[in-house]
């Protein structure tokens, strides 16, 4: 196992750098990455303080700094210590500058401005939390997306992830003994998506859930035949209503959400061309 120190130096929250580092490190096996976060670095004095810490645990430096003086000082420090430096956004900014014929504005944290999109995300998150697990069906028409699926099919975490992308999402459990409310079958605005999963995976997830709650595993909730009936019932319901279906068995939350967004965008494109 190779241990690698990765220093993420940002003049904003560092969220962008964290995502870039995570995506890049996922491509390598046998690496234990120790990430050091250095956000809101906007002065040379602040930079001097963190360089002492970086010198104690040298490694790769990935940075986003728009202040030229701070940036040049970081690069000088890194070169003196023979540390690799990666300006994460430079290639994208250079390409945009050439295509748009203008220079990028040196404003740190510009993507975090409290603009209309920010407040739309806040509203989407509030809506999604308030409409978890089949709550308030009278408001489902206001949703962008409805997720339907049996218990433990990743409905809630997927809904929250989508909400952070700005989508209002409600989710509803599909239960054999308790059919969904009629409102679900008469919605006009939301995209209804069925989430399904493999029976073996669902059984394992439910068993782990019961263990985490210190509950007895000897219930119909983890009975193989009962699970098969639930999944069959859900799939028939999805097919009867012609809802798109996504199998989450081998998908991460991010991959499931990306597939849903793709379906949502295709549906929107089709509605604008008809």
In angstroms, what separates the terminal alpha carbons? 56 Å
Uncertain ranges: none
What count of domains describes the coordinates? 2
CATH architectural designation of the largest domain: 3-Layer(aba) Sandwich
As for the CATH topology of the largest domain, it is Rossmann fold
Total number of helical segments? 9
Rg is: 24 Å
Give the percentage of residues in beta strands: 15-25%
Spatial order of strands in the largest sheet: 2-1-3-4
Order of helices and strands: EHEHEHEHHEHEEHHEH
CATH class of the largest domain: Alpha Beta
SS class: alpha/beta
What's the average pLDDT? 91
Annotation, overall tally of beta strands: 8
**Range of helix content:** 40-55%
* Biggest beta-sheet profile: 4 strands, parallel
Shape: globular
Question: Mind explaining what this structure looks like?
Answer:
The structure is a single chain. The chain has helices at residues 15-25, 44-56, 68-80, 90-100, 116-130, 155-164, 199-212, 224-240, 253-273, and strands spanning 2-10, 31-38, 60-64, 85-87, 145-149, 169-173, 191-196, 245-247. The chain folds into two domains: 2-110, Rossmann fold (3-Layer(aba) Sandwich); 116-273, Rossmann fold (3-Layer(aba) Sandwich). It is an alpha/beta fold. The termini are far apart. It has a four-stranded parallel β-sheet with strand order 2-1-3-4, with helices on both faces. 46% of the residues lie in helices and 16% in strands. It has nine helices and eight strands.
């Amino acid at each position: 196992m190779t241990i690698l120190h990765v220093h993420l130096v940002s003049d904003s929250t560092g969220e962008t750098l964290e995502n870039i580092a995570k995506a890049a490190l996922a491509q390598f096996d046998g690496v234990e990455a120790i990430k050091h976060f250095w956000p809101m670095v906007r002065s040379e004095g602040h930079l001097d303080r963190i360089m002492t810490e970086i010198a104690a645990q040298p490694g790769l430096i990935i940075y986003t700094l728009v202040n030229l003086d701070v940036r040049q000082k970081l690069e000088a420090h890194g070169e003196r210590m023979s540390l690799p430096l990666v300006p994460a956004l430079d290639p994208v900014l250079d390409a945009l500058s050439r295509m748009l014929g203008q220079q990028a504005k040196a404003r740190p944290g510009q993507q975090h401005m409290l603009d209309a999109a920010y407040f739309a995300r806040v509203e989407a998150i509030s809506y999604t939390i308030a409409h978890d697990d089949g709550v308030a069906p009278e408001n489902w028409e206001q949703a962008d997306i409805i997720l339907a699926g049996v218990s433990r099919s990743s409905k809630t975490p997927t809904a929250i992830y989508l909400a952070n992308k700005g989508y209002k999402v409600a989710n509803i459990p599909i239960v054999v003994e308790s059919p969904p409310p009629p409102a679900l079958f008469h919605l006009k605005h939301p995209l209804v998506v069925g989430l399904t999963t493999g029976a073996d995976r669902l059984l394992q997830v439910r068993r782990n859930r019961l263990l985490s709650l210190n509950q007895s595993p000897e219930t119909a909730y983890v009975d193989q035949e009962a699970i098969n009936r639930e999944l069959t019932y859900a799939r028939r319901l999805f097919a009867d209503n012609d809802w798109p279906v996504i199998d989450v068995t081998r998908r991460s939350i991010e991959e499931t959400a990306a597939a849903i967004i793709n379906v949502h965008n295709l549906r929107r494109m089709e509605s604008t061309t008809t």
